[in-house]
């Protein structure tokens, strides 16, 4: 802190993808920039550390993307998963801007690779990072530091001081020491509130205490709550979030993407009563994986069980933990704490409802059950080939959708109008676009697009 100016041009709260995109853009415009990252250096990057890809519009092939993925199809996919709960203007802005983001990312040190094979089926829509999210985060920090951006780690912002339509300073604890940070403009990119289990429980009820937090433990919503308490316009439902089904053996916090289970389309999924409760083959996995966290959260004890057989064990990305394995359905049920006879009855009923057809693991194949109250409309094959495998599923929350409402310039507003020197980007404002549901890679799109906009607008303000 010895070489800090008394007042920075821009202070960026947060240290993940959106914060870094804002800081780099502002620094390239000539602004002096400070990043306040709440985590220690070894955990820097927020949820961006756990990402793998970026959903990108493109009019033709551009490495590493194949074919084309144009605006209307992208928007259709978003509308499908959000059920129309989105600000279409901001959604189109994110979609259109994503095309120019990919070369910008490459120019700032991010490297890409061909998409992963298997059930994700994203080679046309999503650009995968070489080395994953941690490599992206490291590349951006290297770029930011080359541009003269200052970075403070273990920097916990407790208060954003607002006076009328202006932010004057931040109250921060840096490595345990209270510090006042002054700047001419501010960008908030500090994520949602999902790591505050008490807040989750207030929104969801006591069941939320059984949720696992697959992302960073540092996103506790302190800055979000502070701004809401000071009259900043908010958006989104506190019970809506990016929540996926993850391995029940994952840690409480920070298990990351490796704990996600991609076996559901080739499974039958049971609750603790040994009953199926939802169509496992409703759509291709990138458009449906993010609904399964909420589905499991609604089941008794917030737990589910995915059962598959030997025909399907190699069709999906493996989890970090090996599945439970057994020679019979009854043995598998017993190992998983389920009633063997009930599970046997459920499996027999499912097997009898399966109909002949051609199985295509990477596309909708119409291979459906017939006569079940809970159908399976694609990839429905009998579980009849031992050995049998099982995974326990629990809800894994990535980030929450309650956030700050922003406009097309990423500016935060109060009841009387815009707060003149305050912008927001990333998960803290993602609820402006994601009312519910999720598309694979779209969180990175929102963070990159609005991070760059926030950085540009904040730099213009101080210029």
UniProtKB/TrEMBL annotation:
**Pfam families tied to this protein:** FAD_binding_2
Question: What are the UniProt keywords, alphabetically?
Answer: FAD, Flavoprotein, Oxidoreductase
- Alphabetical list of SUPFAM superfamilies matching this protein: FAD/NAD(P)-binding domain, Succinate dehydrogenase/fumarate reductase flavoprotein, catalytic domain
**FAD-dependent oxidoreductase 2 FAD-binding domain location, by residue?**
9-435
The Swiss-Prot or TrEMBL record annotates one GO molecular function as:
oxidoreductase activity
Per its UniProt record, the required cofactor names are: FAD
The organism sits in which domain of life?
Bacteria
PANTHER family according to UniProt: FAD-DEPENDENT OXIDOREDUCTASE 2 FAD BINDING DOMAIN-CONTAINING PROTEIN (PTHR43400:SF7), FUMARATE REDUCTASE (PTHR43400)
Tell me what this protein is called.
Answer: Tricarballylate dehydrogenase
The species this protein was found in: Pseudothioclava arenosa
Lineage here is: Bacteria, Pseudomonadati, Pseudomonadota, Alphaproteobacteria, Rhodobacterales
């Amino acid at each position: 802190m010895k070489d800090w100016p008394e007042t920075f041009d821009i202070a960026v709260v947060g240290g993940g993808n959106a914060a870094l995109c804002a800081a780099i853009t502002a620094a390239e415009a000539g602004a002096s920039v400070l990043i306040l990252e709440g985590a220690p250096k070894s955990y820097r990057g927020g949820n961006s550390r756990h990402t793998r890809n970026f959903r990108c519009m493109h009019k033709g092939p551009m490495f590493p993307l194949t074919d084309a993925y144009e605006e209307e199809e992208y928007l259709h996919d978003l509308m499908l998963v959000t059920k129309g709960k989105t600000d279409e203007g901001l959604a189109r802005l994110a979609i259109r801007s994503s095309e120019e983001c990919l070369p910008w990312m490459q120019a700032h040190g991010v490297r890409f690779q061909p998409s992963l094979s298997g059930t994700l089926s994203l080679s046309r829509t999503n650009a995968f990072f070489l080395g994953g999210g941690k490599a992206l985060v490291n590349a951006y920090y290297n770029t930011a530091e080359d541009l003269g951006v200052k970075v403070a780690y273990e920097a916990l912002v407790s208060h954003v001081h607002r006076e009328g339509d202006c932010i004057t300073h931040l109250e921060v604890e840096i490595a345990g020491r209270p510090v006042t940070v002054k700047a001419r403009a501010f960008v908030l990119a500090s994520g949602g509130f999902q790591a505050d289990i008490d807040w989750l429980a207030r929104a969801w009820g006591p069941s939320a205490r059984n949720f696992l937090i697959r992302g960073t433990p540092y996103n506790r919503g302190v800055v979000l709550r502070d701004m809401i308490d000071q009259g900043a316009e908010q958006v989104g439902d506190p019970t809506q979030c990016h929540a996926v089904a993850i391995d029940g053996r994952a840690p409480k916090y920070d298990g990351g993407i490796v704990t996600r289970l991609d076996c559901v389309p080739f499974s039958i999924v049971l609750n603790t009563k040994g009953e199926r409760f939802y169509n496992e083959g409703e759509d291709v996995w990138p458009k449906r994986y993010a609904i399964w966290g909420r589905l499991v959260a609604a089941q008794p004890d917030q737990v589910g069980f995915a059962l598959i057989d030997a025909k399907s064990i190699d069709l999906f990305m493996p989890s970090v933990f090996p599945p439970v394995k057994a020679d019979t359905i009854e043995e598998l049920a017993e190992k998983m704490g389920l009633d063997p006879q009930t599970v046997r009855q459920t499996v027999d009923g499912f097997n009898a409802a399966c109909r002949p057809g051609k199985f295509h693991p990477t596309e909708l194949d119409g291979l459906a059950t017939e006569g079940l109250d809970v159908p399976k409309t694609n990839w429905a094959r009998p579980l009849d080939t031992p050995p049998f495998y099982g995974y326990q599923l629990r809800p894994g929350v990535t980030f929450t959708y309650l956030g700050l409402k922003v406009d097309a310039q990423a500016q935060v507003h109060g009841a009387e109008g815009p707060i003149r020197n305050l912008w927001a980007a990333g998960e803290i404002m993602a609820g402006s676009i994601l009312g519910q549901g999720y598309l694979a890679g779209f969180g990175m799109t929102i963070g990159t697009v609005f991070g760059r906009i926030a950085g540009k607008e904040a730099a213009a303000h101080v210029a």
